[in-house]
């Protein structure tokens, strides 16, 4: 199966790809055609399915299909002409990680890591509250991306972001023994959990768009509400409830980034920095991956418009 990054004009294509987005359009001769973005983990390409008789027979967005086609060029841009396609069946064998940019660890392994950290929480009220919220959101957690476009916008990205932050916390907690590890672990596990309802994702784990609830309310306020509901059900102590809610609401630090308060205790402060470290390292690694050694990247908007340098050694 040819990787999209290796495609050139004239490449014949046969293999499994993701239908990232698509529309039915009308060509200049009045016939319907399908206009798609087809992707694998290495990139994406515009694809056309000419002379569509019935819209219902077209590939569905967010699904993986087997494609046979040829790469042509139109106005200097590569374009894949889809000659044949079919939906995948249970007998098909392919590596999903080659098709959809995915977290490097399996959802099962990452969920097991989170479970280990939940078990480390000694305060039974904090522990029960985390278990309650996790249980509610776990059906959506396995494959969910952590963002629409930016950091961790990959399959199972939310689990990856959460587990990396938990591991980071383990590096920092012994250096500052006055920190309450229970609050830090709980804050990490819960801080972005409502991205599962903020961002709509396909069954394949790709982000589609913000949900209505996500746009109108957002994962911070949704997270605070989720904690309130669980705390009410469990009759959690009010101080614990407010402290956990404060950690969620202050984790973006600045009002212009969605936090109505800046952190008011050290565990909330450290949660923000754990989040920042993981976000920044992910974005920097991502930019440098496709960069040649000894060169600077383009200005990266996400990283305050900085250029990044890739070392030669
Ligand atoms: Fe967040
Ligand atoms: Fe986060």
Counting DSSP E segments of at least 2 residues, the number of strands comes to 7
What is the fold named in CATH at topology level of the largest domain? Answer: Hypothetical protein af1432
Radius of gyration: 22 Å
Residue windows where pLDDT falls under 50 for at least 5 positions? none
Residues in β-strands, percent = 15-25%
User: How many structural domains are formed by the residues?
Assistant: 2
Estimated helix fraction:
40-55%
Order of helices and strands: EEEEEHHHHHHEEHHHH
Q: What ions, cofactors and ligands are bound?
A: fe (ii) ion
Q: How far apart, in Å, are the first and last alpha carbons?
A: 32 Å
Question: Which structural class best describes the helix and strand composition?
Answer: alpha+beta
Q: Report mean pLDDT, rounded to a whole number.
A: 94
Q: Shape, please?
A: elongated
- Under CATH at level 1, the class of the largest domain stands as Mainly Alpha
Instruction: Tell me which CATH architecture of the largest domain applies here.
Output: Orthogonal Bundle
The biggest beta sheet is recorded as: 5 strands, mixed, barrel
- Helix count equals 10
**Spatial order of the strands forming the largest sheet:** 1-2-3-5-4
């Amino acid at each position: 199966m040819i990787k999209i990054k290796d495609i050139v004009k004239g490449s014949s294509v046969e293999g499994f790809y993701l239908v990232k987005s698509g529309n039915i359009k009308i060509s200049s001769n009045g016939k319907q055609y399908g206009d798609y973005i087809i992707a694998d983990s290495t990139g994406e390409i515009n694809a056309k399915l000419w002379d569509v008789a019935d819209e219902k027979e077209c590939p569905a967005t967010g699904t993986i299909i087997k494609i046979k086609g040829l790469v042509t060029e139109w106005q200097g841009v590569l374009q894949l002409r889809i000659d044949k396609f079919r939906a995948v069946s249970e007998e098909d064998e392919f590596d999903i990680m080659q098709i959809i940019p995915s977290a490097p660890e399996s959802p099962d392994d990452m969920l097991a890591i989170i479970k280990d950290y939940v078990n480390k929480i000694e305060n039974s009220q904090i522990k029960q509250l985390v278990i309650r919220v996790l249980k509610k959101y776990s059906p959506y957690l396995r494959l969910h991306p952590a963002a629409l476009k930016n950091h961790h916008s990959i399959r199972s990205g939310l689990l990856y972001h959460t587990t990396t932050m938990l591991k980071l916390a383990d590096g920092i907690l012994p250096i500052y023994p006055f920190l309450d590890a229970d609050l830090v672990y709980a804050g990490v596990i819960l801080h972005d959990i409502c991205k599962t309802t903020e961002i709509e994702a396909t069954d394949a784990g790709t982000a589609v768009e913000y949900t209505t609830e996500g746009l109108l309310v957002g994962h911070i306020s949704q997270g605070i509400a989720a904690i309130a509901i669980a705390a009410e059900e469990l009759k959690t102590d009010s101080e614990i409830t407010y402290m956990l809610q404060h950690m969620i609401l202050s984790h973006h630090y600045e009002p212009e980034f969605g936090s109505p308060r800046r952190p008011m205790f050290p565990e909330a402060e450290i949660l923000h920095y754990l989040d920042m470290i993981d976000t920044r390292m992910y974005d920097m690694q991502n930019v440098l991956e496709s960069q040649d050694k000894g060169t600077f990247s383009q200005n990266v908007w996400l990283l305050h418009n900085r250029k990044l340098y890739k070392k030669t050694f």
